[in-house]
Amino acid sequence: MNEAREEALFSLANRWFVGSVTFTAALAIVSALVGLIILPRLQSDVVDLKGLWDSICSAAGVAARPSSETPVEATFVTSTVQLNPGRFAHPSAESIARGKAIARTCAACHGGVDGTRAKFPSPNLAGQPAGAIFKQLRDYQTGARVSVVMRQYVQALSEQDALDLSAYYAQARREAEPVRLGMREPPIVAIGSPTRNVPACGSCHGSGDLKIGTPWLDGQPVVYLRAQLAAYASGRRTNDIDKQMRNIARNMSSAEIDEAARYYASRP
Amino acid sequence: MINNSRLILAHFWLAFISFAIAIVLGAWQMLIRTPLHSSFGTSDWYFRSVTAHGSIMAYVFPTLVSMGFGYAISELSLKRPLAGVQAAWVGFFVLLAGSVIASLTISAGEASVLFTFYPPLIGNPLFYVGLVLIVLGSWIWVALMSINLRYWKRENPGKPVPLAMYANVASSYLWGWTALGATLELILQILPVAAGLRTTIDAGLARLFFSWTLHAIVYFWLMPAYIAYYTIVPRAIGGRLYSDTMGRVSFILFLVVAMPIGIHHLYTDPEVGAGFKFMHSTLTALVALPTLLTVFTICASVETAARLRGGKGWFGWVKALPWQNPMMLAVTFSFLLLGFGGAGGIINMSYQLDTSIHNTQWVTAHFHLIYGGAIVIMYFAIAYDLWPHLTGRELGNVALIRAQLWTWFIGIVVTTFPWHYVGLLGMPRRMAYYDYSNPTLSPQALSVVVSAVGGIVVVISALLFLAILWKGHRGRRVDPGVYRFSTPIYEPARPLVALHSYGLWLTLMIGLTAVNYGFPIIQMASQGHSVSAVYVGANR
Ligand SMILES: [Cu+2]
Fold it and tell me: Residue A50 belongs to what domain range?
């Protein structure tokens, strides 16, 4: 580059330099003044801002004060499980073996150990993602999910026991089921109902994508599936994080609940 | 003939082949959104397709066109051999490798996160690695453009920098700087999570970084079209450029103000303060200025062509224009589409009006009108204009070229107008399925179908475009003569330093970016509000 030209450009004698810098600076200053000071002042009736500094902070995106509203407390126990995607990856062989040992006490109902199958109407656990099993076990323990049957079995489980069980079930193979006639995917499962805010079930439950903490539904007893959907809809089951399933089940008709339950139960 | 025609042709062909793939996917996406949904595929495939379509159209296609065109401009306008040909090939192959890697992960369903990434959605790390490679490959071009200009300046002290090269280097700087936002997002935020080193991500900060890229990238797409308006169109239709200075001022304005305005994509984002949204919307309004300057200058240049051909009267000269000339058609269509798109853009850029169309199909329709319409039609024109100089052969049938431009124009209008309309009715974007049996949606079905028909017309036109170029390689051998850019009516004797260098403008660009982005970035980064990543495509 030509040195002489460079010098001449960044100089107060150069009209282009002075003009463009002044223009740009003026533009930035005026838009900042209007955006950060004048407009928030004009809207202060809405936001109830006390001082100049408050209004600048609010316009800049800094919350000046925490909201004064008291948060609404739930009247039931909510799930406290934090599902961390890395947590269940690569379990040790030891953990799986320990899980299997504990799982023998559960096999009478849930199957999944050495060729046993779940007994109606308990759900299958073999092959379920670790995060889903772990979350349900912890929820039964804290009382976020209520089941008279399950309560007695989870009380003695430590956190490590729960992790071991999850690790075991996640890799356990489900025993082959008797061949069942596949049912056509009902619309509520295939595409959900966008206008009612029901996404396609498969976008979380596996056929499209399997989101963390979400169980497989394939081959679960129809009575169990129907009961769970009904429980979400009526608010008897409340352990789903962010009401993911409650919001869905509430917007399903009972015919759709029935169809979805029968469809998933009919799958191998 | 151009020395580096192989290099340039490689860029153009890769660009146009990926464009063809993406446009077929696009038309299929239009079909799956119609009431015939279930005959065309599943939602899962829809989102793979949208990710591929967006990634190609946003990152691969325009970048390659800019690069190929840039190498041609460097050689033709500076009249010296391109320096760094080997590096240019390296850039090309890095970009090619990146595109292949990204496409494979998308096809496998491992990266259905759309081209805007949408964290906390996290796909396969290879997808992001592929995109980073694409950017790195293109940065080699950025460096080469500036190096070539520097060599030329050393050899030609005090001479005016040719307008085409001046604009080309401005475009490369704009890209270099604006691509930084998304690259930082990918490297600092997304890749560690995708690789499993971290499991939470600050989605608000990620969106902020992406907005850094998202607006100015549109201007980077636009640059080749604008370069063609100023430096090809007047010559091609037998006129002269009305004002060389106006051209330089426009490109400078793009460089300075196109960048620090991206927060207009975050108007509904609760994490960004309203004050910064206002600042960005002010500058967004200003970015209309270079476009208005351009429209004025080019219309004036076109008028000179008409008057040279004997056009008379206030408006009578319009009849004297060379309407048989494909370039005349292209620039007319481009301006019409730009006009419609610009009018819609006024709604998007205003903080309040935007809320009525935010996240609706209006937005998708808008950027297809501007980009697919006004910009891509000029890419066609550029290719048609350069092709004989690249192949040394005649391009052949002008009627076919006109038919291609006409079908493109009609196709884009038929596609995007009803698309805007359903957006106004509130049809959301980024959805694979619409339940037209619902009485509130059923009236929209017709518009969506019309739009899909437009999509098919557009595909036909694109294939025609490829066929014309392909045939161009087997046409009659001709000597295309010396390539010329348009000459201005008035050529200043002594070039103004400010209009022939970049130091001042880059300083202002970086300064304004710091003012408009500095605080929001620091504030969000220091708060560190992270959310759990949502891995897609992986059964974790
Ligand atoms: Cu924008």
Answer: 2-60
